[in-house]
Amino acid sequence: MSRSPQYAPYSPQTIKVHTIPIESFETLSSYHNIHSVRITWVDLINATGFRVVPLKSFYRLLASSRPGITITQCIFGFVINRAASGFGPVGEYLFVVDLTSMRLCSYAPGHVSIMGWFQDKVPAPGRVLGTGVPMCPRSTLNRIVDTAKSYNAAFLVGFETEFILLKSTNPIEAVNPHGWNSALALPSGTKETEVIEEIARGLVDSGIELMMYHSEAAPGQYEIVTGPLPPLEAADALVHTRETITNVASKHGFRATFAPRLHVDNCGSAAHTHISVHPIDSKHPSELQNLSQSPAGTSDNLITPLESVFLAGVLRHLQASCAFTLPLRASYARMLDGIWSGGTWVAWGRDNREAPVRLCVPAASVDAKLATNAPSKNHFEIKCVDGTSSPYLVLASLIGSGLLGIQSQSPLIEQDCATPPALMTEAEREAVGVTRRMPMSWEDARAALVADEALKGILGDIVDGFLSVGETLDELLHSPNEAERVQMLVEYY
């Protein structure tokens, strides 16, 4: 009998990123008959773009001292067919390819995709040539993750990707009426089952760990769950996952949409973001060793001191982070009390799906020896995220918020919420430190971001660009007719 494969627990030290290795670049033409490279990026409104470079031209590009392509600096200001305020026609970036990020495009035979870094093409005052520019979302996330390392903190991130398969966008018509985990939503021989299975195979072929898939609660809705990776690689993998979903659906005549909520009488689509925080060197836990082993709100030792200060930072800046995690006016139709979407109060709770931050704890071991002195296997599920958001900006804001908590060793004011906050009295909420509401609208979230000087400080100049393009996008998606608004949403997201 062959031995079963051995799996190590997920940790920043054991996780592997299965992209195409750099040593395979010279033989790409024989690797799945590759003939084209998609140099890919995601802008500030979460629109994915790429330029296709024939393989021979890509080899020539790699021979240069800074392998990349030039793109107008207005790239981050383009919103559908309009340039946002603050962006103009002058200046170019060099988009330098990241040779660690190449993945097979299973949905486009002969193609691979590769991500990159937006850098100054020529020296700019006050900036180091060869580093990411402030407006680059990928560079912003990478900078924050690198800063966290100096505080002995590393992260793993996984995503749940919810989407709806439509057989018509005008009128809006889902592929079937079936619901959550229903076998009727994935019957053999149907086109939707063929699509979902092709998506699943494609993700595996591209090196992304597929943990599971199933139907979700709205008609035609499905969920793809992918495994944990370091933050930058996780964001890259989510972009590739979404591209796989939309392209495979399109190939079969469907439209896959990540729109937050199509109908008020059905569930919305989220991009639940799972984050775990780990000490890089457990033998040198830095200043966090001085914290109480039972921080406020964690008297039963649910979470570690590092998790406590990280969570405190996330919650303190969550209202502002919603500008990035829920970036559209339509996003707030999903964030309501009583529909298991995270609710409307800034709170956290163990396995509480009516809190925007859910503490996910592992199943208890029946072997007491295995349960002692083991690293934490907790992680946090951030529920106030949807698929219209950029994963780079989402993670930059959430991890940046947590990093602020780590840097200041913030006390955790909010306690473990064992009841949906909306069902508690005001006195009961105050007793567990739950006193702040989540943003109830697009305007509220943007105002919270503008007012949050600490979060703006750690994110940098990208905030102003994001606010500008968001305003332009809101104008373009506006329509007095609800049906037209929904149709535009599914066309672009």
Can you give keywords for this protein?
493 residues, alpha+beta, Ubiquitin-like (UB roll), 4-stranded mixed beta sheet, 18 strands, globular
Descriptive report:
With 493 residues, the chain is α+β, with helices and mostly antiparallel strands. It has two domains: 22-133, Glutamine synthetase, N-terminal domain (Ubiquitin-like (UB roll)); 134-363 and 375-493, Glutamine synthetase/guanido kinase, catalytic domain (Creatine Kinase, Chain A, domain 2, 2-Layer Sandwich), CATH 3.30.590.10. It is 29% helix and 19% strand. The protein has helices at residues 55-62, 137-149, 191-205, 231-251, 305-316, 318-325, 391-408, 426-431, 442-451, 453-459, 462-477, 482-492; strands at residues 36-42, 48-54, 68-72, 78-79, 82-83, 92-97, 103-104, 111-114, 116-120, 153-169, 172-174, 210-215, 221-229, 255-257, 273-279, 348-350, 357-360, 379-382. The strands form four sheets. Strands 10, 11, 12, 13, 14, 15, 16, 17 and 18 form a nine-stranded mixed beta sheet that branches. Strand 1 and strand 2 form a beta hairpin. Helix 3 packs antiparallel against helix 4 (231-251), helix 5 crosses helix 7 (391-408) and helix 7 (391-408) packs across helix 10 (453-459). Mean pLDDT is 91; it is low at 285-299.
